[in-house]
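Run log // design_07
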């Protein structure tokens, strides 16, 4: 019985973490330091070729290959 409960809890935890990264799953952002503009850092997606600028320390949070549905 304890094994079944443990497996259910593990499945829920994996599902939560997999859903968290759903927006950037298709993109593989690479920093392009030659295109930086002051405080803006330029990133280019190795998968779709999209370019984005970010002021945060890491890459963009969303995928530019598939625009959000409205």
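design_07 sequence
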């Amino acid at each position: 019985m304890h094994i079944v409960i443990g497996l259910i809890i593990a499945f829920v935890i994996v599902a939560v973490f997999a859903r968290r990264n759903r927006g950037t799953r298709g993109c593989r952002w690479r920093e392009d330091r030659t295109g930086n503009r002051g405080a803006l850092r330029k990133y280019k997606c190795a998968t779709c070729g999209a370019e984005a600028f970010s002021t945060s320390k890491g890459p963009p949070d969303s995928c530019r290959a598939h625009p959000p549905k409205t």
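The mean pLDDT is 79.
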